[in-house]
Design goal:
The structure is a single chain. The relative contact order is 0.11. The longest helix is centred in the C-terminal third of the chain and has 27 residues. The protein has nine helices and no strands. The protein is an all-alpha fold and 183 residues long. Pfam families: Sigma70_r2, Sigma70_r4_2. Belongs to the sigma-70 factor family. ECF subfamily. This is DNA-directed RNA polymerase sigma-70 factor.
């Protein structure tokens, strides 16, 4: 379907045109959102907000300009706003653990989104050696806090504190890297 025709139909309030637009662009918008937010629910919300804005602003669309530019500009701006809002603790590290678990394995990274892997890897590399060791042991799922404490000759409270601080540091760094990549 011709995009100019699709935009024209959308401007007239045609819901079928809107559905076609959603089918064409929603998966790409979700992939981009997830890459930067590292959170499935937030990425889904970003896509939903994107298409809600498209529907609301449909009458203002320019038929002579590619709709994909408008879509991804709106999405990029929304993602930047989400990432910049430090009040939101947007990164749910559990959503990224599948990526983190690959760090110690001899696995091909082809399944991983390269930029997302690099953001996470850079953030982990910024941890101090002690925090990096605690973090790696903790996310491996092989050790309890007590076992890590015993192996490293530290208290359980130290392990909990260092792990918590590691997560905070990683979240902050990923947010900063994501903003830099979007700019």
């Amino acid at each position: 379907m011709d995009e100019t025709f699709l935009v024209r139909q959308l401007k007239e309030g045609n819901q079928l045109a809107f559905n076609n637009l959603y089918k064409i662009y929603s998966a790409k918008a979700f992939a981009l959102s997830f890459k930067y937010l590292c959170n499935k629910e937030l990425a889904e919300d970003a896509v939903q907000n994107l298409f809600m804005k498209i529907w609301i602003k449909r009458e203002d669309l320019d038929e002579d300009k590619p709709i994909n530019r408008f879509i991804f500009t709106v999405l990029k701006n929304d993602l930047l706003n989400i990432l910049r809002d430090t009040k939101n603790d947007i990164f749910v590290l559990d959503d990224c653990l599948e990526f983190l678990n690959y760090l110690d394995e001899e696995t091909s990274y082809q399944e991983l989104e390269q930029e997302q892997f690099e953001m996470i890897h850079k953030a982990i590399e910024q941890l101090s050696p002690q925090r990096k060791k605690i973090f790696a042991m903790k996310i491996s799922g092989k050790y309890s806090n007590q076992e890590i404490a015993d192996l490293l000759h530290l208290s359980v409270n130290t392990i909990k504190f260092q792990y918590c601080q590691s997560i905070k540091q990683i979240k902050t760094l990923i947010r900063e890297y994501a903003i830099m990549l979007l700019m």
